[in-house]
Every structure is written in C-alpha cells, then in structure tokens.
Amino acid sequence: MNAAGLEQDWEACRNATAFIAVWLAEVFIAPLPIVAVSEHCSTDGVQLLEAIGDELGCRSAIDRMRSALSGRAAAASIERELSIAYTLLFEGVAGSATVPLYESAYGGEGTRLFQRATADMESLLQGCGLSVRRDCCEPPDHLSIELALLAAVLRDGDKPRAALLRDRLRAWVPEFAARCNKADGNGFYGGAAMVLNGLVAAPALDDLRCPA
Amino acid sequence: MSSRSFNTEPSSQSRRTFLTGALASGALGLTGVSLLTAGARATAPAAASRTVLTGCHWGAFRAQVENGRMTGIKPWEMDPHPSAQLAGVLDSVYSPTRIKYPMVRRAYLERGPGADPDGRGGGDFVRVSWKQALDLVAKELQRVQKTYGPAAIFAGSYGWKSPGNLHNCQSLLRRTMNLNGGFVNSSGDYSTGAAQVVLPYVIGSIGVYEQPTAWPVVAANTEIMVFWGADPMNNCQIGYLIADHGAYPGLEALKKAGKTVICIDPLKTETCKLLGAEWLAPRPQTDVAMMLGIAHTLYTENLHDEKFLAKYTTGFEQFVPYLTGKADGTPKSAEWASQICDIPAATIKDLARRFAKHRTMLACGYSLQRQHHGEQPHWMIVTLACMLGQIGLPGGGFGLSYHYASGGSPAATGPVLSGISDGGQTTAGAAWLSTSGSASIPVSRISEMLLNPGKPFEFNGTKGTYPNVKLAYWVGGNPFAHQQDRNQMLKAWRTLETFIVHDFQWTATARHADIVLPATTSYERNDIEQVGDYTLTHIVAMKKVIEPVFEARNDYDILPIFPSGSASATNSPKARARWTGSARSTRRRAARRAANSSRCRFSMPSGTVTMHWRSQSRTRRRRMYSTRTFATIRYSTGWAPRPEDSRFSPKISRKWGTTTARPIQRGWSPPSAWAVPPRRIRCTSTQNIRNTGCTPSSAAPAFGRCTR
Q1: Which residues in B89-160 belong to E strands, given as ranges?
Q2: Could you give the ipTM of this predicted complex?
Q3: Range with lowest mean pLDDT among A96-100, A200-204, B380-384
Q4: E-strand spans in B338-451?
Q5: How many CA atoms lie within 13 A of B199 on its CB side?
Q6: H or E element: which one contains B485?
Q7: Domains of chain B by range and CATH?
Q8: How far is A42 from chain B (nearest CA, A)?
Q9: Which residues of B are catalytically annotated?
Q10: Which residue ranges form the domains of chain A, and what is each CATH number?
C-alpha cells in the first residue's frame, strides 16, 4: 500500500477513534437521556456497539453494556436504572464509594479534585484554542472533557497533542476503569469503563508519529 | 511495508467508515454538541499566584492560590497552636463528594411531595437546573404554608455551619421563613442541652458559654486544676467563630507552673497526657455520685466554707439533709459514692481534703450532662464549688468552658461584629440560640415532634404542643450525624412531605433529602468574622479564595425564595428588595467596617497590626493614639509603628519610647508600608491588669492583653 493509502487508512482510523471518544464522552458526562438509551437499544445502535467492540478488541465489555440494556420492557425503565447507577457511581452521593470522573483524583495527591491536572488541561485547551463550554460547570480534567479534546485533536490530525492526551489518559484511566469495574462489575458503566480502557490502549493511539 | 500497528484490512476500513459516519447521523443518540468551544473562556484572569487570609472553625489561615485553585494552606502566623485538622480544609473544598448541582429525588420529582418516603436515602437523584429547583422549593413553601400554616414548616436547622457574619446560612434561612409567614424553630443545642437549661436557675446565667477565669490567673494562682470530663487539648482545636487556640498557651503555662492537675474522665485524655495529670476514671455517667461523695466529706469533716455558703448561696440548708441521708436514709458518703462510681472511697475523701486545702479550679466539660438527668452534673459541680468557697478568688471556683473554644483565653475589648439578623434575639455567647420563629421545640425532640403531632410536651417549666410539621428545611447542619436514635429518626422522617437541604457535601442528611441545593463553602465567598469566641481579638476579612466550584451558590443568593407561584418570583426585583432591605444595610455596615479597618490599619491580623477600630474621624483618630487606646493593643502581635513613621502624639512617644515624635499625620499609609520590629508594650493601668490577671510586675503578658 502506498503512502497516500496509508494516510487515508490512518485518517479513517483516527476518525473512528475520535467517534468512539465522543461517544464515551457523552456516556460519562451525565446519565444517558431516554433518546440515547433508545438508540443504544435499537438495531443500528447494537451494530454500532459491536463495531466499537471490534475496533477496540473489547467485545466482552460491549457485551456487558448490551446486557445491561437488554431484557427490559421499556427504554424509560432502562433510563431510570442507568441514571440511578450513574448518580451512585459518579456524583458523590455514595460517599467514599464514589468513583471520581476527574484526573485529579488519580494523580497521587489523594482523591482531591481541582489539582494540577486541572491546570494542565486548562493549558492544553488554551493551546488548542479551545475552552470548556460555558454551560458546562465541570473542570477541564473531567474524563469527558479530556475525551472531547482527544476527539478534536484526532480529527484535526494534531498528532503531538493527541500523543500528549493519550499519555495523560493512559496514566489514570486504567485505575479509573478498575475502580468503576469493581463498583459496577456487571453494569453498563463498568462495561463502558472497560471500553474506555480499550480506547486509550488502542493501536490507533499507539502510532501517532508521521507515516513511514 | 507499513510499520503501522492498526489493521488495514478492508473489513476494518469499512468498519471505520461506518463508525465515522455514525456521529454525523446522530447514532446512539449522540448530540454532536461538543463540550468544548472555540476561544478562551471569558473569565476574569486569575493572578498566577497569591495568598489569601481567611479563617474557619479550625483557625485563621493563609490559603495559597495558583491560577484560581487553592493549592495549600498555611496557618496564620499569629496562631499559637494551629490545628492539624486545618489541612482538611482542602479536602472539604475539593472532595469528590461535593454536591455539584441541584438535585431532586426522582420519586419526588415525578410524583410530588410525600412520594415514596421510604425511598429517601437511596441515592436516586436527578439533576435539575437551578431555575427548576428554586421553583420547586418556592411552590412547596407556598403550598405547605397555605395548606397547613406556618407551624408546618420546621427550619430549626441546627448545626455548626461555617463562620462568617453575613453568610450565616441559618440566620438567612430563618429570615426567609419569617418573611414567608413564620416557621417552627428549635431551642437549645446538643452541646449543653441540659446544662444550659438548669444553670440560669443555679447561677443566674447560662454559664456554659461564659468566659471562665483567665488562664494567666489560673497559672498564677490555682494550686489544683481539675478537668472533669473536659479535654481542652482536643476540643479547643475548634471554635464556633474562627478559633484563636488561646487555650494552648494557657495549658502550657499551667504545665510550666508545675501545678497539680487531676483529670477525672473515663478516658485518659490528651490533656491528661500533656500535663502529666493524675487520672481518675469513674464509671461513665456517675460523676454526680462522685461529687456528692466529695461534698459529704467536706461537710462531715467541716471543710466546707460556711461563710461563703451563707453569704453567696441559697438553698444549702435544703441540700444538707439529702447529702447527709437525713432525708432519705442514705448518706451520700464517699463509701456510698465509691460503689456507684468505682473510685475508692479513700480517694474521694482525699480529693475533698485536697480541694479544701488548696486553691482549686473545677473545670467541667459538657460530656457529663449528656445523659438522663443531665441537669444534675453541672448543678452539683457548682454546689461543690460553693462548698469549697473559692468562687471569686483568683484561680478558684469553677469554669465550664475551658474545653470549648479556648475559654479562659484573655478577652479583647474590641468591637463585636453584628451579623445578619433573623429577626430574633440571640443569647450572648451563643449566637446560634435564636428566638426567631413562630414556635419552637427543644432541638433534639425533632423526631418526637414528627412522630407525635399534637402531643403536649414540657420543657423548662413551660408546656407546649408539638406542631404538625410537613416540611423541614435544613442548612449548615447534618442531623443524621448528631441526632440520637437513627432508627427513630428514619421513622420520623417518613412523616415529612418535603425535606430540603443546602450543603456542600453529600452528607447523610443530604442523601435523605428530597431537594438538595449545592452551597458554597466559606472559601468561595466574601465574608467577615472574628477570631476567638470569647476573646474576639481580631476581625478577619474572609476574602474569597476561589470561585464557586461546579454550580454551587451562596446561601445568601439561594434563600430569598418567595413563594408566589411564579417561576420568576425568586429573582423578582420586589422579592430581592424585601430580602436585601435590611440585609443590605447589614452588609454595608460590615463592608464599611472591613474598609475602615484597613484604613484604620487595625483589622488585619497580618502580624503588623493589632486592633480594629471603627471609624477614622479626626476626633477618634486622636483617641486612637491615646494612652488608653494603646493599652488595648494586643501585646502578642508585638506591633509598633516605625519610629520614622510615627503617628503618635508627643505624649505617647515619650511614654512608649519612640525615638521621634511628630504630630499626627493626616491620611493613611497602607499596612505594607509599615515595617515593625517586635516590641513589648507594657500595661499602664493597674485596673486593666487586674481584669486579666496580668501583674504589674510582668514585663508583658505572654498572651492576652490589658483591657479597659
């Protein structure tokens, strides 16, 4: 295959990876609304989920997510269960059992939020000419914001920044995924965390240097 | 040959194409709206690095801020004994358990007030907007008020909140409830629930929140210091205002003076260990028996002070028959007491003899009275002190607050800041005891009230009827931590139709609420507070350290919730005018004080200034430099103006030894312009010295200062 073809493949790969990052960002930013739940349960949605599983080599994690979405009478019921799970896992209601969605909580400075990672991500965003949307009150080291930035730089083909974000995510996502998996082993979010783990370990993120 | 590690097979390519197109088609319900936006966020640029002075229950401190984040805490340099707990402030602000957004319990949101009360505590909350949350609260307050009346709303809201005179969330809540037409308040507190009720009948005042004999006097004159159920080493880390930690120099002085210290406590306390005290461990809740045993020995061995009892007390003649057993056939002897409290009779007798022979200070803690018949321990310890006849003698008598908020630390005579009012009257020394509200229940009877509406109850010689409460509103407190009998409490809470909570943490109380509103911490807002519950030595302008995190709002901004059924009511100009009417004047007064204090150079405990003064009128300015005024300056700051920058009158300069004497200058220089070498300031007024226990011969007191 020639260089142009390789570049085309690389573009397809990073765009696909960017899509997965965007999807995971929306999964973890808030409980899924009923529209999104319905889409996940639809035939097209199932196909997409399977494609994601194949792309990242994490079909088992996808299957876990699907099992949490299946076997229910109505999307409203699933939406309610996912919302309860999300709130208890991530919103702090569960006290010390909370699984924080912020890089700061995994930086070795205890579980405090708004640590150095917040400032680092702020700088990264500024470097990309971006900022967190005004109506989003989350600090920039929120998992979803980091994934959104990853998607943006991948789509832009900004390899150096993509590599930076890759390294950041690889430093803390495995621990986050492990905690989430432990807290929600058979659930939707436990599965999503394992998919996330697969994303940050994806081959597409391994090779961010210029094509050979 | 490609060195790429990703799969380039046709199936992979078609899959990637499939995935890439999914976003554009809105697959999986993806909105396609990015969390990011182009351009920098339009926020005010934060200074890269700065230090902010503020305070908390654990003391004053300087917060280090870098790029808008609090990154470190350094105790205030004038704090004589910073608390190790201060480091936890950072954890509280940045905890993963911060309440981030307004949340409503799902069942309540979907089915309204009273829905699924058993579901409270399950954690099934739905995030809502502030507008929706405030509308819910406003409409519910209106509904309950109209349907059941003001006595259906409980806003006693007991708790320790945060320091700060403007953002006093409990006053703000009660203020709102008063404007709403009334509410049920709570009276008393958990700390001294029994003692504070009985002591006015015993000594004529609340006692437990009153300044005891100052530590310098104790260190100089007390021969036996008795800590009875009191552990100042542990408890004086905190204060209801900003803790001054004045107890610790006092304890050190006591230790240095080599006084005999006896700790009577089931536990060997930190105070006991520090002072190398004698430790007597009675059975828990048998203190009254032990005190009676001591009293019996005093009486039978004629060691009690008859003259003192005759002149200063009444009722001893009624007490004696009980003490001697003439009334009930049971003498309350040391032997009798020993069987109850498990302290040897010989020890009890020995205590009586030693107390009588030596100048004895009985420092009683609050723990003794948290039991059935809790009014008895404090009543009895006062009786014991009266029998010893040393009340009023230097270093003798009793003190009920050595273990709380550094009671005993010499007090200042600076101004006392007023705070935002809730319309009721507060008790001196206990700002949380407010009389505001239409009705009131004793604070810990909330479960009983909820479970027994209409039932009569008795309290402190009065009779009342429990109201039928349907809505409880809680701010700055966590009753699910401090209320007794959790099972009864859960049962009681099921009777509520609505439970509203403001907090910054997901406490157990917040988890059991229907509507949860995220409040700021005191580090995310501007406020003003004093240092030292008893000493009031300094005023701190509690400057905002960081911007509010997530969607937290100040209670002050949340609480003008005026029910009108209109979605805009909470922010209507009229509503805010009603709310801020007198609040504005309070705020302006507080702001003026803060501003005046900086102009007057006395407000900031920066190490270079000492004392706050209210105004800078020329007349007052002259007075500021009078001898009397200088007598009020706290020694321990070691403040003195630079001689070359003297603002002293010639008279003061001669007296205080400044090298130059110039007329008082007009205008002000900023505090940063003053470089101050530490120097001692001598008290000049013997009257002042006596009040604090300083002796004329002391070069300067190690702490505290002369007062007027």
Answers
A1: 103-105, 125-127, 153-154
A2: 0.93
A3: A200-204
A4: 360-364, 397-399, 426-427, 430-434, 439-442
A5: 22
A6: none
A7: 103-183+437-519+554-571 (3.40.50.740), 195-399 (3.40.228.10)
A8: 8
A9: 158, 160
A10: 3-206 (1.10.3480.10)
